[in-house]
Fold each of these.
Amino acid sequence: MIRFSHVVKEYPRTGLALQDVTFRVNKGEFAFLTGPSGAGKSTILRLVIVEETPTAGEVRVSGSLTSGLPRGEIPRLRRKMGVVFQDFRLLEDRTAEENVAFALEVTGAPRDTISARVSRLLTQVGLASKGTSYPKELSGGEQQRVAIARALVNDPVLLVADEPTGNLDDRATRGVFQLLRDINAAGTAVLMATHNLELVKRSDYRVIEVNRGQLVFDSADGNGAGTAATSTPV
Amino acid sequence: MRLTFREVALGVRRSPLLSSLSVVTIAFSLFAFGLFGLLVLNVDRALRGVEEHVEIVAFLADGTLPEAVSAAMGDISNFPEVANVQEVSPEQALARARAELPEFQDVFDASFLPPSIEVRLKEGHRDPKTVKEVTQRIQTYPFVDDVRYGEDWVKKLYDIRNIAGAAGIALGLLFAAVAVIIIGTTIRMTVLARAREISIMRLVGATDGFVRRPFLLDGFLKGIVGGLLALLLTWGANAVISHNLIQTTFFDPAIATIGVLGGGIIGLLGSALSVGRHLRRV
């Protein structure tokens, strides 16, 4: 699903962000990506969603090598994954329904199927009654649920979440996390970057930890970092 | 296409002030261009009017037989450059002189004025070189005493036309470039105001084409509306000048339509450049 092989990312102004990072997230797997601020978590996620390409090494997502991927192919690859951010990134002037529908419209989905799919997704995330609400009329947890519904509307094989509970209170955090677990249980692989160690400890999902641009721990590999990439895909 | 129109409408609804500002900026840029165009059109028309007075006068020797004059006139009127040929008798020449010059009021004998042939040239053949060539051909008739065409005057007129034409093209290009830059900058503001939306669109898998389309349509429509406003302003300015200062000519409908469509195309190009640059960066 995601495969990093000896990935190096260097920025002209800030220098090395990632050094020789190798790991693999398999189909249907749930993995936490942890580490202090500036450790390289967001860089890894940006490489996964092809906002960036590596300076050296290889990143493969859903079988596609991201380096040298034609520009026209990037949107098609992104449609195979859903992305959720800490700041929700909803369109403020559109209702919850319209925000979710938007992700379908950009893919050219048939108009008559959009409404039913949006309703199904909003029901799945527990917001069936809030479809006509605008983001500012929703709580943080509800906004994140809309963002998750939007991320799932194209039936992605991978959900990438960057601190999805970072702006939420405990109750909303639990709700959103449970939602992500349910999504994973239904077969979607989840890569979730988080600072919330409580959340990490409460579950037995795989943990990949980065620090100063290096992979320092991978719970899938009892012997330390890096070898997870050689594990057998599920 | 339905989605593209909806996105354009949403953009206008979301930021009506910025949209209005874009249209007004486009309108004033094109208005300045339109005023300049009006100036060029009227100067050109005025120069053409003066040019129509370019004529060659061949003075004939005394005693030239009327048959010879008729034959020569037939020949000359067949020259490809010649529009028409007219014979002027001494009496006609005196009548003209008396009408135009007060000192001829007391002159009643026309015998001292030579008969002449006046030759007018077709449009496009009134440059100094052609006028001189035709003059030389007319001079070859044995009964032609002298030929005059106001060499200095024709040369000066031609120089003025060339300078006006070159200045018109240079200033026109400059005005057009300034209009494109101003319009491009205005549209860039619209693109930047929607940068967040563009990033979200790309995040959910929108292609560059999908992101670009609403902006292109938006730029084109704003260009058309701005062009129509500019046309209205130019028409108003022309009416005021024509009424209060000098009689001027306005653009014909075809030129006016091209101007408005030009506004649309500038809007489209400005959008394409601004969005393209933005998409390359993100």
Note: Strands of chain B lie at 55-60, 82-88, 116-121, 144-148.
Amino acid sequence: MMSPLKSGWYRLPGLLRYALQRLGMGAVLCVGVTFVSFALTQVVPGDPVTANLGERAAADPEIVALYRERYGLDKPLPAQYARYLTRLLQGDLGISQQTHRPVATDLATYMSATLELAIVAMVLAMAAGMALGIVAAVWRDGWPDQVIRVVSLAGVSVPTFWLALVCLYLFFFKFNLSPGVGRLGPGTPAPEALTGLYTLDAALRGQWGLLREALSYIALPALVLATYTTGIVTRFTRAAMLDSLGHDYVRAARAKGLPAHTVILRHALRPALAAIITVSGMAFGRMLAGAVLVESVYSWPGLGLYAYRSALTLDLQAIMGVSLIIAVIYILVNLAVDILYAVIDPRIRY
Amino acid sequence: MSFNRSIKARSRLALAIPLGLFALAAQPALAQDTLVVDANFQLKTADPARAFEPTASLVLHPVYETLVTFEGSDVTRVVPLLANVPEISEDVKTFTFTLNPEATFADGSPVEVSDVVFSLERARDLKGSPSYLMRGVSVAAGEAPGTIVLTTEAPDPALPFKLTNLALSILDAETLQANGGTATPEDGAERFLAETSIGSGPYTLTKFDTSSEVILEANESYWGEAPAYDRIVVRNVNSNAQQMNVARGASQIALNLRPDQVGSISDKVTVISGPAADMGFLFMNGNPEVSELSVNPDLREAVRYGIDYAGIIDFIGEGAVQPAGIIPTMIEGALPTEQVPTRDLERAKAALARSGLSDPTLTISYAADLAKYGIAFADIAAKIQSDLADVGITVELNPESVQANLDNYRGGTLEMSVQWWGGTPHPSNSLPFTSGKLVGLRAGWAEGGSPELEELASRAEVASDADERVALYRDWQTKLNEVGPFVPLFQPPVTLVGSTEIAPLEYNPMWTVDLSDVRKASE
């Protein structure tokens, strides 16, 4: 006879069961990520003491001993890792050696900046990429298609760092269409944090002037960050749409006299969405990774810059925190993509 | 066709989103009395006693004050600030300061002897990076009211110069203690100090974000001369954006432009360019267990005279200088610049011939991922490789990560390396280059390596008479150049760029620019 727990489990909707299973696997994966990142930080040559203490302090055994004790570096490696895991279970990611603050606090601050940039860039890339892909497919081999193919190829080919600099030069320096670098103007107080996303927080609090300022600052870096993804989404949308448009059911829909936009957006686009969502999930992960270059040029205080500084100063707790949070995001995005499959394609059941 | 129109309309709508975002873009209006400064942040903490990064000195110098300070760019003598210039005992071990009775903290409370004693003891006993400044120094209230007596274990004429360091700032002890401040490594006041400031300077700290910006507001009740700006915003901005910001007037000061970046905007800004008080140097390890080649005195001479120093200075750019000795040019005791070594290929080749080595190969190690003042160590190493090839010495490049390079350097295991040195602008700051001392040991030069040099160093360190001190430091450097494993290469250029809205800036090696002293051009 089935145990109540087991029978309760099987009474859950299939999709929920699937999501819970994936989350459980994700948790195991996260532990694996902490182990790998811990091991790698130990393999990298260099001593955090050297990286973080001044010349004279690093030559003082008493100061060095205190430093090692403060950050738990005086313990054997297995003990250090066990201590990290124990604290992680309590939500404590340790103290950053570069900022002297809890890593969890740092991640909340920097992650929200990166997420805001990535989400806006993703919205722009999806909107523009899908629109361009549809237009290119509908006008296959016509001049709009030719132009869009060249533009999308340029989008995926152009180096992000170079594009960021050129755009800053043109839109800020030359034509004054952008207010410049940063998340807000110099000295402008950030909206009181609800989500950490300035645009959303300003909107939720009804601070419309601040919302306008935040949008004006995020526009240029988000557009630059969106360029590559726009190119990718355009190409995938075009290919998927061309495939859909060639099917009998689309021809049948047209023959029935349905309006063209209904045929395109309901009958052709919907089956194409699975491929588009797949590539979008991957592109979002790449966007987070690529954000460091855009953050660097636009002085955007995000996770990329934090990770870079952590690596330079061998800030072990911060490196592990960043690795963990990136892993969590990848797992959640992939889960969301898999769930969306079921939403858009009734044939898929979990 | 309706299909085409519909799709076109939707596509246009999608494409309009990014364009619409641009429509929002406009320069937000800045408060008229705000000074905006762009810098590449190297910033960890707002606690002066823990701060040891250049950006911390820049942003906290206007907030916290020290007993004595430097005026403008002159770092050869200290001037009064919270206290007078100290009375120094004959044995140069006792320093008596008298507090300025006018001095007050931002909350209006007076700066008292107890604040000084606690602040200095805390800086010493926190055991942080700057604690070495107070090593062996005891602090006590003097017999007379308002006096503080600092006593050193050994004679230390450099102590007043060390006391200009931000780390030895005076904080409101009572408030600090009420918020976790203790004079022990367990001190817990750092987070409190990131949210507020308890100094006596012309500004107070209102925002401290190590990744994006620091905001200072004028201290309304400042006890000295009021600053020109109501507010200072120091932003973390990379050098490319700094160049555009200052040229467009979006900022008033850019601190990290390279000489080539300044050239293209020089008609829109004022530029101050000069040497920094840091020193780039080469060493050849003196430990035969590390290398039998680099200990060879003739090979060392060949290297010393084979390097194209003028070429290095040209290559680094305007503002860089070649020092004649290991003490930077603007510091008391520096060797006259007429004594700088120059390239002499004949002498270098003759020295190589004398060494008895044929086709020697040296390995130069450097931090490949590090550039200071825009100068990449990799470029300097490549230049040395090219210069020494003309002499007949093969140099193999060994790029390392900055951490690995620092570890190896501090472990004394590098055969040849380009390194960096800076610190308190006092000649004693260079004494660790003596055999048996900190930098000497890193270059494999153990105690007893040069007894004459060590004797000169110990005399120079305690010399209280200025003329005698200068003479001793010069003799010490001349000897170091003769027998030491070090080759001073360059002092990097510092380029300060200001918009035309402000008066010309002054560079100070300790805090780069005194932001509280920046004046409007119209004043």
Note: The radius of gyration of chain B is 26 Å.
Amino acid sequence: MCLGVPGRIVEVYTEDGVRMGRVDFGGITRAACLEYTPEADVGSWVVIHVGFAISVVDEEEARRAYELLAEMGNLEDIDLPQSPEGVRAEDYRPGGPR
Amino acid sequence: MRFIDEYRDDRIARALIEEIHRTATRPWTLMEVCGGQTHTLIRQGIDELLAPTITLVHGPGCPVCVTPLALIDEAIAIAKRPDAILCSFGDMLRVPGSSEDLLMARAAGGDVRVVYSPLDALEVARRNPDRTVVFFAVGFETTAPANAMAVLQAARLGIENFALLVAHVLVPPAIVAILVSPGNRVQGFLAPGHVCAVQGWREYEPLAREYRVPIVVTGFEPVDLLEGILMVVRQLEEGRHEVENQYVRAVRRDGNRAAQAVVAEVFETCDRAWRGIGVIPKSGLRLRAPYRRFDAEVRFPREGAPASESEICMAGAVLTGRVRPDQCPAYGTRCTPSSPLGAPMVSSEGACAAYFLAGRPPAEVPA
């Protein structure tokens, strides 16, 4: 029930006075309500639960924490999965969303 | 997928398992609160890799499992009304009521629709103005903002034929109920990451202090869970009892304030019965007075005799970690996912279903 899936916002729009967006999950996009993540914009990673963004992924914190884990696992290179191909090139912002 | 795949890396998982075994100098018993976490732990066999040093007991964090029988019966009764449409998450459809489930109600002609989001149910209401559309609002703090927004939108847009059948429950009162229960053996908790994405972890700090238990906010992938377990074990070994956050990529101490504000506008806390456990004070949410007209229990007052539970099912003991699913005498025999006696065998978050789907045999010594 409390399933939350990270996805990347590819479009933001307003519907019935509510902030909505299209979110890409590894190539599949779905509509989601962005009302609870006013700071998130196109390019942001958000955690989606029952059609609502409930949290903006902190990419810096994620990288810092993962580097420690990778070190522990003796991973020689931190090969993080890249953005899904379903995201259009013009939506991509170098340096991540802020 | 990014932020998922890298947390399934077996090299990191193995290193964490070794580190947990190195760190623990004696046996410890931990509870993972959320049913989603239970499923990952059992499916990956993490509990077996950590035994016998670390015992994982499974918590009540399965909203489908703890929704009271009377509310399931109420949902079924609403579904059968010709003037109503019942919308629900798919998980609820096969949860046994006292004599049938929602799937049977649908087969008998009831209009039961599975939706992905409460906003989808609101859309059903907009398209069917001559019928009352009831959304079965089950869930923990994670789901409350979505349901609150649906009610707020119904009020704003004047969609008065929309209602919620509210079965909302809260995690911290359940943790307290477990800690004060006689024979409690839980020494540390993995707190549910997505509940805390909404609520933050401030409300867990007094619990950690008062009951002297480590609580670590933890994510849902195998590496997340193993790191969370390691953090709890480190605290236990060092005699600390604090709230720590493993799930840093998604959870902040204050949680999501925008979501909390809308939940507080629409809902207020109330005492609530948990299926298999009983009434826990201040453990649920109900609609505030200005929104009570959207309450399905107000629109369709409950009829009929009070419901009674299966006498065989041990769901209550399973949900509070007193009995392991495979220790129930009905496990895998009279109770299976295709013919469940209790909700934990149905739900994708139920502990009994987790054991069954992982092919765990019945325990040699039943409870």
Note: Chain B has three domains: 5-63+171-245, 65-170+255-299, 315-357.
Amino acid sequence: MTAPGAGATAPVRGAPAGIDSFIRRAGKAVVGSLYGALRALKLYPVENAAVQKALADLVAAAGAVLARDHELTVRASGEVLFVNDARLRLELDSYAAFNHVLGVWRACGIGTLRVSAAAGPRDWLALLNALQRPSAAAPAERLEEVRERLHLAGIRPFELAAPADELDDEYEEEAKATSKRLYAQSVAVAREVLQSARVGRPPSLRKMKRAVQGIVDQILTDETPLVGLTTLRDFDEYTFTHSVNVGIFSVAIGKRLGLSKLQLYDLGLAAFLHDLGKTRLPAALINKTGDLAPEEWALIRAHPWLGVLAMFGMQGMAQELPMRAMRVAYEHHLRVDSAGYPRPIRPREQGLFSRIVAVADSFDAATSRRSYQPTPHAPADVLREMRENPARGLDPVVVKALINTIGIYPVGTVVVLDTLELAVVHAASTHPEALSRPVVRVVTDALGNSVFPGQLVDLNARDAGGAYPRTIINTVDPERYGIRVSDYFI
Amino acid sequence: MSAIRVSGSNRFAAEAADRGGPAAAVEEMLKLLGKASRAHQLYLHNNPTYLRALDLLRGSFDAVWEQVPELTLTVGEHELLWEERPVYQEHDRGGASMPWLLFKDGVRELRLLPGFENQEVERLLDVLRLLSRASASEDDAITLLWERDFAFLRYRFVEPLGDEEGPSFTFGPTPGRLALVDGAPPPDTPSLPSTVRMADFDGTPYFLAERELAYLRDALEREYAHDLHADVAAMLLDTFESQPSPRARAQVCAAVEELLLHALGTGSYRAVARLLREVATSLQRTTNVEPGHRQRLEALAAQFSTDEGLGRLVEALDVVEALPPDDELEALFGQLPREALGPVLRLADGVQTVRLRNALRAAAERLVLAHSGELVRLIGSPDPVVAREAVRRAGALKVAPAVPALGTLLTQGGGELRALAAQALSEIGSTGALQLLAGALGDAEREVRLVALRAVGRGYRAASALVEALVRDRRTRDADRAEQLLIFETYGALCGDDGIPLLDGLLNGRSLIGRRQDPALRACAAVALGRVGTEAARAALARAAEEKDVVVRSAVQRALRGAA
């Protein structure tokens, strides 16, 4: 993109945060000091200077927001924290704090915390103690417990509210519809770009930008519906859906790794174009179903550098050579130890974006049905292989981020529950410690009768007796049961 | 940053509300938005006129938010609509109208939320300012809005499909989805043989550890600090070297040409230098390169060896707002080939920027030391500027191989060049150079003679007889005082005791009719004797110590002191 002119509030790519308003900075300080105080209270007795300082910092951070905006609310929504309705960005330096506060909010069943100006160190101490008190209760009950404790202690400056469920359903439908439209549009753009590149016609840069911007926005707001759509994996459209899927997975991983919005855009664009070089190969070779001869493999292995040349050849790119995308196209089959292909002659280290795209590409390719892979691998097996086989040369931190994004049972995995029902994984567990308990959609009953659209069940929810009503016992091949996973995401 | 609220804003809000409800307040706010937008285009961000317009605009939102919870505006070609009625029109400003700047790029709706006026209104003004100046190739309204990451502004846009409008999309903040509620951490999942178990992943905590965060920070920093031009150049040239296919190599050549242009266009001069260096490396170690490809790649560096090519580069650097650091300039000019010496010499003194001039001079020096033959060739250049600079560099860098060419210039060149050639020969100071200068002691040009005298006077005894001839020459008596003195000083430095009789005669001798020499000439002889400095010379000087003529006596005294 062109750098905005002098004097403009120009977003900065290299910097972790671009434009930062007061509320985002101050909100980040509130969350950071909340985290600091929670940790201090866990480690030290109340009278310890570290605890006192942490509480004083928290009062000051909250006071700064209250002084300016006359209100302070900390709201959790999905994996996003809002302070006074401003969404806080997840960044590398605030990653731990955000995760911890979100975890506490979830465990205590809190949707929103409203703080009044009267909150002093003693009030905060009481609140934080109540939040961290060990309890086996379900979140909704814990919220009541916390409220009760604060009431008994005479602590008044806080209002705690549960997540607004009624908004949730409405929003989920809207997000799903938006994601579907965005996904379809992105596949159409990928088709246009790749076909244009094949025939040497200039592609629409504007549409490509828009598609990537839309993906970034949706992933930042709520990634679940869009990640769910990557299960579509249309055989005939593989080339195009693969570009979009790799874009989606890459941006989702990038988000987990704390990249800023503009960095996610760069990453998304690069991911979108990573296989552009394949447009320079004969279609018959790409679609060949049998084994490839050595010379055919040699051609396939040329696609990274062909991609770089193809980007130079795309008219309209001259003004803003997509050099980061070129790097990713060139390096996405390199390994972290610089093995892989193409073999570099000059010293080269695989860049972070290339590592992210390599992981996203490997996952999507292995779990898709393609001309030379008629049976896709189970997502869970692919993840295990990616993590455990160093010969794949994937960056372990990035693989970890992918697992953190899509769970041990990635979205779209068909699982057998201990109730003998079959279910499709709908969303990764929102609880980082419970990745084996995602949200699933039950698609058959215990007798194998199909249920559509099926009930959405959070496997992490317990019954009144504290037990889990359903647990995953196995993963299965959806084709064996005639299940079309994508039907449950459209 | 101006104050977010001004004292007058509440008064304004009240007035607007009084005048006629929400529509009037919206109209007033948009009128002020238009004014602030124009002020932002005309003035700097700290200009009082702009700040005043901004304060008024911010204040005008009070009246709006008092009456509506949020504001949705439909964007027309030259108007903004609120609840289907026009609230802002700019039909007379054509392509510069605020609605058109948004409409032309597909923006069809703006939804403002309370809080927009605090920080984000300035971002919108920035976007409008950039749009009003943008060319077709630059970012459009949607991208500019998207990049600014608004929290209190939502915008709907359409994608054009030929003449029709395509589907509509909305960017901006959306109400957050509340998460499905989780319980407390679960106990261990029961272990079943065919299940993917948590235990399988126990070694991987799903939070990133501190060292992993540090690794990521470092990787991200390197990703953005990376010189992408150099990186892409390496990809292309690796491909050139590893792929013998002529078709691939031809495409690489085209890409490298484009990359070089891009690097020059974006002022990445270090990248230009690296690209040229790597191209040379590739050509050196790649076998079977087709002549056409070799020629294309060699032409990349060669274009900077022409007056036109290097001139364009130097001109661009001379006017650039921030000149690259010295090491970058050094790297850039370090890639210039031998043929660039002439253009460098021609251009160096014409540049305005001192650092650039110094960098070019340093480049000239490097080229001279590496390619003295080229310098010798340029001494005979028909271009007087190049010839002059070449002569100067030959002298300053004591380029001995240039002596014959300088000799030729000394005898055949024009006035200024001959003096410069003499000076260069003097600086080189080799026997050959001094021999040539000795031949120029009687040159018609005073400047040449003086340079030659000074040079041989540094100890070129072979010229002693020639200088003595000058001392004896009657024309010397008609020369100006400075030249006279230099001739005698030079003679004194070269002649030793052999010259004392002549000098003593000039100082102390009398003519047949008993007259002394001209006092000025005697004073010069005294100076020369002082240079000789031997006992015999001192004795000659002592004889004149009581001289009545003040000029002579003074010169003698000084010479005696100097010779002591």
Note: Chain A has a mean pLDDT of 83.
